[in-house]
Amino acid sequence: MEEIFLAGGCLWGVQEFIKYVPGVIETEAGRANGTSHHTQGEYDGYAECVRIMFDPQVISVESLIDHLFEIIDPYSINQQGQDQGEKYRTGIYSRNSQHLDAAKYHIGAREDADKIALEVLPLNNFVPSDAEHQHHLSRHPENHYLCHIPWSLLHKYK
Q1: Residues in domain Peptide methionine sulphoxide reductase MsrA (predicted)?
Q2: Exposed (0-12), middle (13-18) or buried (19+): which is 152, by Cβ within 10 Å?
Q3: What is the pTM of this model?
Q4: In Å, how far from its chain's centre is CA 136?
Q5: Among 50, 96, 120, 126, which residue is least crowded by beta carbons within 10 Å?
Q6: Rounded to 5°, angle at Cα 46 from 42 and 50
Q7: Residue 12 Cα to chain centre, angstroms
Q8: Beta bridge mates, 122
Q9: Does residue 128 sit in helix, strand or coil?
Q10: How many Cα neighbours within 13 Å face the side chain of 110?
Q11: What is the mean pLDDT of the chain?
């Protein structure tokens, strides 16, 4: 099993979508690369993200990135749908430098690479979200109106 962290705006939607992708074993909503080690307090520079445990024999980093691109506007800076602000920026984070190299190469090979606004950075800090935010849209589908991803797309791989 390997792990990678994907940020695509609202973490509720990213988690609800990605957890059904074949090869994804486990997901956890959280915060990447902030300065604190808890969820209380003022904004500390984090990006809302989802920690993804995956089987590299079933799915590659490149395929995970392609799936992320299904649910985001890769050209948007600090905004996905109605969610605006630095914490909603898009990104790919990992403690594994091979993941980051693969991501940079994969994105760089796209025809639109010069327009893409995804961070690709080492993961320095991860703080899991509070329990109320874990698998939120599975437990509270009535809150889908807060998510920029269409319901049919959220469950494309379910």
Answers
A1: 3-145
A2: exposed
A3: 0.96
A4: 15
A5: 96
A6: 125
A7: 10
A8: 94
A9: strand
A10: 18
A11: 96
Is 147 among the residues known to form the active site? no
- CB 134 within 8 Å of CB 28: yes
Rounded-to-integer distance, Cα 6 and Cα 71, Å: 12
Question: What's the domain count of the chain?
Answer: 1
CATH (domain of 81): 3.30.1060.10
Residue closest to 91 by CA, chosen among 149, 42, 32 = 32
- Lookup result for tokens 């690709």: 120
The residue among 2, 9, 16 whose CA lies nearest residue 94 is: 2
Task: Kindly provide the b/e burial profile for residues 34-70, where b requires at least 16 CB atoms within 10 angstroms of the residue's own CB.
Answer: beeeeeeeeebebbbbbbbebeeeebebeebbebbbe
**Structural domain for 45, as ranges:** 2-155
Helix 61-71 / helix 97-108 crossing angle, nearest 10 deg: 60
For the stretch 114-148, pLDDT in tens is: 999 999 999 999 999 999 999 999 999 999 999 99
pLDDT (average), residues 34-54: 95
Torsion of CA 44, 105, 20, 139, to 10 degrees: 10
